Amino acid sequence: MSNVAQKMKVLSLYKQMIRESQKFSSYNYRMYALRRIRDAFRDNKSLSDSAKIQSELEYGQRNLDIIKRQVLVGQLFQTDKLVIEK
Fold first, then answer.
1. Most buried one in 16, 49, 64, 68, CB count within 10 A?
2. What is the pLDDT of residues 20-31, one digit of tens each?
3. Buried b or exposed e, range 39-65, using 16+ CB within 10 angstroms
4. DSSP code, position 23
5. What is d(CA 29, CA 26) in angstroms, rounded to the nearest whole number?
6. Are residues 9 and 64 in contact, defined by beta-carbon separation less than 8 angstroms?
7. pLDDT tens figures, 31-72
């Protein structure tokens, strides 16, 4: 896979994860997910090995699926908003 195509996939995955994690109804879960996503992408910014990048993309895709599932579960059990959210 070309370097440009990998960068586009990484950027797309990053945007999807950020968008999906902003759907968490709970402030604490939302902020934790956003922080973890930003930190993970920042930590792996310097990767240059194509195989390692591909494995990290697969790992990120699995985590995106987890985030989507948890957002859905969280919406089933709505709670009152925290004071910080009002």
1. 64
2. 999 998 889 999
3. ebbeeeeeeeeeeebeebbeebeebbe
4. T
5. 5
6. no
7. 999 999 999 999 999 998 989 999 999 999 999 999 999 999
